[in-house]
Amino acid sequence: MIDDYYVNEYSDWVNAVVLTKENKMVLVEQYRYAGNEFYLEVPAGKIEANETYEEAIIREVKEETGYISESKPILLGEFMVNPATQNNKVITFLLLDASKEFEQDLDDTEELTIKLIDFNEMDTLIKLKQINTQLFTAHAYTMAKMYYMEKQLSV
Fold first, then answer.
1. What's the total number of domains in the chain?
2. What is the CATH number of the domain that holds 55?
3. How does DSSP classify residue 86?
4. How confident is the model at residue 155 (pLDDT cuts 50, 70, 90)?
5. Which listed residue, 17, 31, 100, 109, has the most CB atoms within 10 A of its CB?
6. Cα 60 to the chain's mean position, in Å?
7. Which residues constitute the domain of residue 41?
8. Residue 28, in any domain of the structure
Protein backbone atom coordinates (compact mmCIF):
# COMPACT_ATOMS: atom_id res chain seq x y z
CA MET A 1 0.00 0.00 0.00
CA ILE A 2 1.26 3.48 -0.87
CA ASP A 3 0.37 6.39 1.39
CA ASP A 4 -1.31 9.35 -0.27
CA TYR A 5 -1.98 7.48 -3.52
CA TYR A 6 -5.11 8.50 -5.35
CA VAL A 7 -7.11 6.76 -8.02
CA ASN A 8 -9.27 8.83 -10.36
CA GLU A 9 -12.60 7.07 -10.72
CA TYR A 10 -14.23 7.56 -14.11
CA SER A 11 -17.00 5.86 -16.01
CA ASP A 12 -16.12 3.48 -18.81
CA TRP A 13 -16.58 4.88 -22.28
CA VAL A 14 -17.03 3.54 -25.78
CA ASN A 15 -15.61 4.59 -29.11
CA ALA A 16 -15.84 3.32 -32.66
CA VAL A 17 -14.25 3.34 -36.04
CA VAL A 18 -17.22 4.06 -38.29
CA LEU A 19 -16.78 3.18 -41.96
CA THR A 20 -19.09 4.07 -44.82
CA LYS A 21 -19.78 1.80 -47.80
CA GLU A 22 -17.23 3.95 -49.68
CA ASN A 23 -14.55 3.03 -47.07
CA LYS A 24 -14.53 6.51 -45.56
CA MET A 25 -13.85 6.84 -41.85
CA VAL A 26 -16.39 9.04 -40.07
CA LEU A 27 -14.58 11.37 -37.68
CA VAL A 28 -15.63 14.34 -35.59
CA GLU A 29 -13.50 17.44 -35.25
CA GLN A 30 -13.67 19.40 -32.03
CA TYR A 31 -11.66 21.86 -30.01
CA ARG A 32 -9.88 20.34 -27.01
CA TYR A 33 -8.96 22.94 -24.42
CA ALA A 34 -6.10 21.00 -22.80
CA GLY A 35 -4.51 20.45 -26.23
CA ASN A 36 -5.33 24.03 -27.30
CA GLU A 37 -6.23 22.83 -30.81
CA PHE A 38 -8.89 21.16 -32.91
CA TYR A 39 -8.61 17.35 -33.08
CA LEU A 40 -10.07 14.69 -35.35
CA GLU A 41 -11.52 11.91 -33.24
CA VAL A 42 -13.59 8.77 -33.58
CA PRO A 43 -17.11 9.11 -32.15
CA ALA A 44 -17.06 8.32 -28.44
CA GLY A 45 -18.89 8.80 -25.19
CA LYS A 46 -19.88 7.50 -21.78
CA ILE A 47 -22.33 4.71 -21.10
CA GLU A 48 -25.71 5.89 -19.79
CA ALA A 49 -27.72 4.10 -17.11
CA ASN A 50 -28.80 0.56 -18.03
CA GLU A 51 -27.08 0.65 -21.43
CA THR A 52 -24.88 -2.09 -22.81
CA TYR A 53 -21.62 -1.03 -24.42
CA GLU A 54 -23.10 -1.90 -27.80
CA GLU A 55 -26.22 0.22 -27.20
CA ALA A 56 -24.04 3.09 -26.00
CA ILE A 57 -21.85 3.18 -29.11
CA ILE A 58 -24.84 2.99 -31.46
CA ARG A 59 -26.44 5.94 -29.60
CA GLU A 60 -23.21 7.98 -29.46
CA VAL A 61 -22.47 7.52 -33.18
CA LYS A 62 -26.02 8.51 -34.11
CA GLU A 63 -26.00 11.57 -31.80
CA GLU A 64 -22.54 12.83 -32.76
CA THR A 65 -22.62 12.10 -36.50
CA GLY A 66 -26.13 11.14 -37.65
CA TYR A 67 -24.65 7.93 -39.07
CA ILE A 68 -26.11 4.48 -38.42
CA SER A 69 -25.31 0.97 -39.56
CA GLU A 70 -27.59 -1.98 -40.17
CA SER A 71 -24.73 -4.27 -39.13
CA LYS A 72 -24.06 -5.24 -35.54
CA PRO A 73 -21.06 -3.40 -34.02
CA ILE A 74 -17.89 -5.52 -34.02
CA LEU A 75 -16.03 -5.50 -30.72
CA LEU A 76 -12.35 -4.72 -31.33
CA GLY A 77 -11.32 -4.78 -27.68
CA GLU A 78 -11.52 -3.44 -24.14
CA PHE A 79 -8.58 -1.46 -22.82
CA MET A 80 -7.69 0.19 -19.53
CA VAL A 81 -7.26 3.90 -20.09
CA ASN A 82 -4.47 4.51 -17.58
CA PRO A 83 -4.35 1.83 -14.87
CA ALA A 84 -1.66 3.75 -12.99
CA THR A 85 -4.13 6.45 -11.96
CA GLN A 86 -7.57 5.66 -13.43
CA ASN A 87 -10.07 2.83 -12.96
CA ASN A 88 -11.95 3.07 -16.26
CA LYS A 89 -11.65 1.39 -19.62
CA VAL A 90 -12.50 2.21 -23.22
CA ILE A 91 -14.44 -0.33 -25.26
CA THR A 92 -13.64 -0.03 -28.97
CA PHE A 93 -15.96 -1.09 -31.79
CA LEU A 94 -16.02 -1.17 -35.58
CA LEU A 95 -19.21 -0.17 -37.42
CA LEU A 96 -19.38 -1.09 -41.09
CA ASP A 97 -21.42 0.19 -44.04
CA ALA A 98 -22.61 3.24 -42.15
CA SER A 99 -24.77 5.86 -43.81
CA LYS A 100 -25.92 9.31 -42.74
CA GLU A 101 -29.61 9.05 -41.93
CA PHE A 102 -30.06 11.69 -39.21
CA GLU A 103 -28.92 15.15 -38.20
CA GLN A 104 -26.56 15.50 -35.27
CA ASP A 105 -28.19 15.59 -31.82
CA LEU A 106 -25.49 17.25 -29.73
CA ASP A 107 -25.34 18.28 -26.09
CA ASP A 108 -25.32 22.01 -25.36
CA THR A 109 -21.56 21.92 -24.73
CA GLU A 110 -20.69 19.94 -27.87
CA GLU A 111 -19.63 21.52 -31.14
CA LEU A 112 -18.58 18.79 -33.57
CA THR A 113 -17.84 18.95 -37.29
CA ILE A 114 -18.08 15.71 -39.24
CA LYS A 115 -15.11 14.84 -41.44
CA LEU A 116 -14.78 11.86 -43.80
CA ILE A 117 -11.27 10.49 -44.37
CA ASP A 118 -10.36 7.55 -46.61
CA PHE A 119 -9.62 4.62 -44.28
CA ASN A 120 -6.54 3.61 -46.30
CA GLU A 121 -5.04 7.10 -45.94
CA MET A 122 -5.40 7.42 -42.17
CA ASP A 123 -2.08 5.83 -41.25
CA THR A 124 -0.16 8.18 -43.54
CA LEU A 125 -2.05 11.22 -42.24
CA ILE A 126 -1.31 10.21 -38.65
CA LYS A 127 2.37 9.37 -39.26
CA LEU A 128 3.04 12.59 -41.16
CA LYS A 129 1.09 14.65 -38.60
CA GLN A 130 -1.12 16.02 -41.37
CA ILE A 131 -4.08 15.74 -39.03
CA ASN A 132 -4.35 16.41 -35.31
CA THR A 133 -5.69 13.36 -33.58
CA GLN A 134 -5.40 11.81 -30.15
CA LEU A 135 -4.22 8.44 -28.86
CA PHE A 136 -7.64 6.82 -28.65
CA THR A 137 -8.43 7.61 -32.28
CA ALA A 138 -5.05 6.37 -33.51
CA HIS A 139 -5.45 3.23 -31.40
CA ALA A 140 -9.00 2.55 -32.62
CA TYR A 141 -7.83 2.98 -36.21
CA THR A 142 -4.95 0.54 -35.61
CA MET A 143 -7.33 -2.01 -34.08
CA ALA A 144 -9.64 -1.75 -37.11
CA LYS A 145 -6.70 -2.13 -39.47
CA MET A 146 -5.54 -5.23 -37.56
CA TYR A 147 -9.08 -6.63 -37.78
CA TYR A 148 -8.98 -6.32 -41.58
CA MET A 149 -5.49 -7.82 -41.80
CA GLU A 150 -6.55 -10.84 -39.72
CA LYS A 151 -9.72 -11.23 -41.76
CA GLN A 152 -7.71 -11.30 -44.99
CA LEU A 153 -5.35 -13.94 -43.64
CA SER A 154 -8.18 -16.22 -42.52
CA VAL A 155 -10.06 -16.18 -45.83
1. 1
2. 3.90.79.10
3. B
4. very low
5. 17
6. 10
7. 13-154
8. yes
